[in-house]
Protein: V-type proton ATPase subunit S1
Amino acid sequence: MSIEDFTMYGGAFGNKQDSVFPNLEGALMSSSSPLVLPAVSWPASNAVIGQLQDQLETSPLYMDPETLSQLRLNASSAALLVFRLPYGIGADLMSAKEILSGNDEVIGQVLSTMKTQSVPYTAIYTALRPSREAASLSMEAGLGGGRSLLQARGGYREREGERERQRKTKDKAGIYSPVEFKEGEDTCILLWAKGLSVSMLRSGRWEDHDLTPSTFGEGVSPKLHGSTCDKTKARLVLNYEYVLSHRNFKLIFVMSQRHYQVSARRWFTLDAVELEYDGIKATFNGSRNIYAPAEYSYRCDSITNFRWPLLIPRSSKDPANQWRVSFDDFQIQGFNVTGSEFSYASDCAGFFSPGIWMGLMTSLLMVLVLTYGLHMIMQLRTMDRFDDPKGPAISVPQTE
Structure:
């Protein structure tokens, strides 16, 4: 989302009736203290839920307008409600106008429900990233207008190409062996990630610490004492020193596997991720979202507790509410490990994306139309008798 979207689709050119933001405009007009920020940095947008969670000291509730009407809010206790609005992945799926119109409809439903409950509220409407970016044009002395624009665009492409080359070099350098825990001579737990990081809230600011260099890499041997594994339970303990001023720090992955009668197979779950430091334990639950068949490994591009969270603090009073964990390109296997390589990975991303569903439905519709057309053609019947133009004409006498 960008400020240009409001200009283009908000009826700013005398066509107010075509605006896709009637509910949003009405809310701003009726608000006693509206605030519009033309642009914000991406990290600020991504961290807004975490910041509000810290300020309100409550966990976010991810809801939709239909379930909001069933929730009874109390003005005496703070609540953090998060609504994910419709979005589009590409221009071939939905137009920007349709997407923004859908967003405004959801906003209208939510605001209507909040008014019926008569509770004070503050609403924030933002996006994770801008819909368009303007390349920074370098205005060099002595260059004409058209030539300056072309050279600036050329420099922008060169900078983007350089960033891409640096990213590929970094990715290539980031290939390393997974962490292995062995029970006797056999490997029973494997862990790999491109990035492991933790953050702690201190004095209203988040302090970050990157655990990746101490966990992976050539010549790095993380301490795994305290780890255990058997046929039904596995526990991987990564021991560190001097993490965010804590002398002893542990990152623990707790897994289990069991047989489920409905699917008639065994599944393993990452039950919890624990942080132990100075005699304190912070626990994140993960079993609801992190699971895979017992003979597979589990992989996910990003696992966090603050942005599209897959890890949830065990309770509102748990010390985990003061921590953030982030695992990038994460893969783990705690059972049925063969050798030092992961088994087939069960990815957290669903196989049927919206684009795939649209393609399948379109193909099915076209097949049905083609089948109907072939059926109609096969029902055509030719005449078996024809009139001979050289023969006598057929006369039909008329009698009264």
